[in-house]
């Protein structure tokens, strides 16, 4: 079982402008474990119910509901009692336009979280567009690619026109917080503290912690710890560095403390992950 929060698997869009999946989960089953990613995802509930936690929001989505997961927002879901069937539409907004085009700034703002949609909406026109995109997705070919891209752009236009969060909800503080996350992503292996981060970006520490939890669904220290451990997991699988050096490179001066944190998150030890990786390499698995 993977303990990863940030989704590291690369989504292949091939020649289609988006990735489209149909999923069915039995009652009470996990639809997806808690994770986040850079891309935008739309979910359309076709039947049943899904219990969703997204950041600090917790709600039930039922047949006909359309859910948006913005980039860098931790989310997880389980199927309702009778199960759930849903469709997922994954895409990178900037890929739908060309640099310098009129709509490029708008799509870049959506990608970066400066513009956001309502998390859950219900709209028959959107449901019809999802059906149309699914139909083109099943055909393949250049013409279907062009039609599907147009339909996806139309869907985005409807979301911008009808369901964009007001500026009062996406404030300047929300926009500045994007830079906080970028800074942490670039410096998470260095000594970081809530007080230091809050001061660097001119926040009161208490407000900083509340805003961070609202933006990501995690506390600042949880977020940093997860980034460090995910990096460590990757190094253990892809390099021959000793465990103590892996720990040091990921911000842990104490290798024993690192091992305890790693065991708690992944349910296995760094040494075991290293040995399993070596065995896989030897036998070509």
**Arithmetic mean of pLDDT:** 85
Q: Cα distance, first to last residue? A: 17 Å
CATH topology of the largest domain: Jelly Rolls
CATH class membership of the largest domain: Mainly Beta
Q: Major β-sheet, in short?
A: 7 strands, antiparallel
CATH-defined superfamily of the largest domain: Jelly Rolls
List segments where confidence is low: pLDDT < 50 over at least 5 consecutive residues.
8-13, 281-285
Total beta-strand segments: 7
* Rg, nearest Å: 21 Å
Number of helices: 10
Find the structural class using helix and strand composition: alpha+beta
Overall morphology: globular
Second rung of CATH, namely the architecture of the largest domain: Sandwich
**Number of individual domains:** 2
Percent helix range:
40-55%
Order of helices and strands: EEEEEEHEHHHHHHHHH
Our estimate of the beta-strand percent is: 15-25%
How does the SSE layout of this entry go?
Layout: E1 19-25, E2 30-35, E3 40-54, E4 57-62, E5 65-69, E6 75-91, H1 104-112, E7 120-122, H2 124-139, H3 142-163, H4 172-187, H5 194-200, H6 205-216, H7 220-238, H8 243-249, H9 255-266, H10 270-283
Antiparallel strand pairs: 1-6, 2-6, 3-4, 3-5, 3-6, 5-7
